[in-house]
TrEMBL record, chain A:
<dbReference type="GO" id="GO:0070628">
    <property type="term" value="F:proteasome binding"/>
</dbReference>
<dbReference type="GO" id="GO:0080129">
    <property type="term" value="P:proteasome core complex assembly"/>
</dbReference>
<protein>
    <recommendedName>
        <fullName>Proteasome assembly chaperone 1</fullName>
    </recommendedName>
</protein>
<keyword id="KW-0143">Chaperone</keyword>
<dbReference type="InterPro" id="IPR016565">
    <property type="entry name" value="Proteasome_assmbl_chp_1"/>
</dbReference>
<comment type="similarity">
    <text>Belongs to the PSMG1 family.</text>
</comment>
<dbReference type="GO" id="GO:0005783">
    <property type="term" value="C:endoplasmic reticulum"/>
</dbReference>
<dbReference type="Pfam" id="PF16094">
    <property type="entry name" value="PAC1"/>
</dbReference>
From TrEMBL, chain B:
<dbReference type="GO" id="GO:0005634">
    <property type="term" value="C:nucleus"/>
</dbReference>
<keyword id="KW-0143">Chaperone</keyword>
<dbReference type="InterPro" id="IPR016562">
    <property type="entry name" value="Proteasome_assmbl_chp_2_euk"/>
</dbReference>
<comment type="similarity">
    <text>Belongs to the PSMG2 family.</text>
</comment>
<dbReference type="InterPro" id="IPR038389">
    <property type="entry name" value="PSMG2_sf"/>
</dbReference>
<comment type="subunit">
    <text>Forms a heterodimer with PSMG1. The PSMG1-PSMG2 heterodimer interacts directly with the PSMA5 and PSMA7 proteasome alpha subunits.</text>
</comment>
<dbReference type="GO" id="GO:0043248">
    <property type="term" value="P:proteasome assembly"/>
</dbReference>
<keyword id="KW-0539">Nucleus</keyword>
<protein>
    <recommendedName>
        <fullName>Proteasome assembly chaperone 2</fullName>
    </recommendedName>
</protein>
Length: 230, 268
């Protein structure tokens, strides 16, 4: 059974790469009532380290896959661990290899440092965080932010997923959030909020008050690590 | 492997039989890749497919050869194939480095594609570390060529007419024994491997390379692409007397901000 969004049948697959993107899904979409864990990708590389925060986020060296109970064609992935360049291809093969490609539509959420953003102005004058999008040829819907201008490029797992979708003609869009905070940060998480106006995520979004509660939890978790002067 | 663009999963692969394949080596200064960018941009080549491989670091961005708003939103990946049937030319552009231990698998996949597509010849644009030149190489032209035995038979004469210099072999054990000579292309990436494999597999391959160093390699790219043009005549000189075609190569719109962003005004 596929999901109807407007007139078009799609089987949505949302991939959140990085801690802030994963936290966005945890705050605004996921819950334990409507979603069930259906899969996990475990990997190890030199960047993995065990996290001291628990419960709200997935473990560091895993990618977790969730399915909407009421509509099993809707899939979500939270990938908080770093997938190294020599693991990315295998990740793609394993994940997309076990999925139905028919009507598949992929949305990727990711973050990267604003210092990587190439622009005529200095990055000091840029107001961050901000979103930029890249989409495959087959993706026909409206995007929720401006497209990423040349000469900017995207690397790592988000690029690997988008390349796969472009080559195999799967409609896909990547939302890259440029931020000046490298840790988990509520401002960065909230920068993804424009996506909630998209047809897909609007129908999956949780109650606003619940999201605020979860965001507050991230705030306090973050603070304990940052109070080096107390 | 090569995946054609185009609607539908079963889109027929374009026919490359008898075509020339032009490609870069990921080498010092990225000169080969820059030169290929100039070729694709100037000849306004059409993208015909992707070279989808696990050997290169993934990367995506919008159309690097965009000339207007309308054509700026096409997604590009790390290895793409462009074609210009009027010149029987196919170009493979590589935009990211190799993943560790993947040089050899890439060469094998590439040469297997060359053979199955029946390309007539492969031209590899490359570069080599300028600081590794010996005393003789420090003088004269920084440009060199190499031909596999099969291509030597076909075009060796043309190289002599052009007065090109063949890449010298160096002593395998310098200082100890100067008689054993080997091909040595430091900083050339997959150049040597691809060349030696092509020699042994009977593929017609030419390597065109320039000695250079890392830095602003745009002038090196122009020199290399003009070198290529002496042979292939991809673009003709507009004025009768001028031999310098640099102004006729079109710089792609993505060659901006190569050395970083604008400066913060507060700096001054």
């Amino acid at each position: 059974m596929a999901t109807f969004f407007g007139e078009v049948v799609v089987a949505p697959f949302v991939v959140a790469i990085g801690r802030n993107a994963a936290a966005f899904l945890s705050s605004f979409i996921l819950d334990s009532v409507c979603w069930e864990v259906v899969g996990v990708v475990k990997l190890w590389n030199e960047w993995c380290r065990t996290s001291s925060t628990t419960k709200v986020l997935p473990t560091d060296s895993f990618c977790l896959f969730y399915r909407l109970i009421s509509d099993p064609t809707v899939l979500l992935c939270q990938c908080s661990c770093y997938v190294a360049e020599d693991q990315q291809f295998q990740w793609l093969e394993k994940v997309f290899g076990s999925m139905q490609k028919k009507d598949l539509q992929v949305t990727i959420l990711s973050t990267c440092p604003v210092a990587d953003y190439k622009t005529q102005e200095s990055t000091l004058t840029l107001v961050s965080p901000f979103l930029r999008a890249l989409k495959t040829k087959e993706f026909q819907e409206q995007v929720c932010c401006p497209l990423l201008e040349q000469p900017n490029i995207v690397r790592d797992l988000p690029a690997a997923v988008l390349s796969y979708c472009q080559v195999w003609q799967i409609p896909a869009v990547l939302y890259q959030c440029y931020t000046d905070v490298i840790k988990l940060d509520t401002v960065t998480i909230e920068a993804f909020k424009p996506l909630l106006s998209s047809q897909l995520l609007k129908s999956l979004a949780k109650d606003a008050s619940e999201s605020t509660k979860i965001l507050k939890k991230f705030l306090t978790t973050g603070e304990t690590h940052n109070n080096i002067y107390i | 492997m090569f995946i054609p663009c185009g609607r539908g999963g079963g889109s027929a692969a374009p026919d490359f039989k008898g075509f020339t394949l032009l490609m870069p080596a990921v080498s010092v200064g990225n000169v080969g890749q820059l030169a290929i960018d100039l070729v694709i941009s100037t000849l306004d080549m059409t993208k015909v497919g992707y070279f989808y491989t696990d050997c290169l670091v993934p990367m995506v961005g919008n159309n690097p050869y965009a000339t207007a708003e309308e054509n700026s939103v096409e997604l590009s990946i790390n290895a793409e194939v462009y074609s210009l049937p009027s010149k029987k030319l196919v170009v493979l552009q590589i935009r990211s480095p190799f993943i560790k231990n993947k040089y050899r698998p890439f060469c094998e996949t590439l040469l297997s594609w060359v053979k199955s597509s029946k390309f007539s010849r492969v031209l590899l644009l490359s570069s080599s570390h300028a600081y590794q030149r010996d005393d003789e190489q420090l003088l004269g032209t920084p440009l060199r060529y190499l031909l596999t035995p099969d291509l030597e038979k076909a075009v060796g004469g043309r190289m002599k007419e052009l007065n090109w210099k063949e890449m010298e072999k160096v002593a395998a054990y310098p200082g100890i024994n100067n008689t054993d000579k080997v091909l040595h292309i430091p900083g050339g990436g997959i150049t040597k491997l691809l060349f030696t494999e092509s020699c042994s597999e009977g593929i017609q391959m030419a390597v065109l390379l320039k000695f250079c160093s890392e830095g602003d390699n745009i002038p090196d790219a122009f020199v290399l692409v003009n070198y290529l043009n002496e042979w292939l005549q991809l673009i003709k000189s507009e004025s009768k007397n001028s031999t310098d075609l640099s102004s006729q190569w079109k710089i792609p719109s993505s060659w901006r901000l190569l050395f970083g962003n604008g400066l913060p005004p507060a700096l001054f």
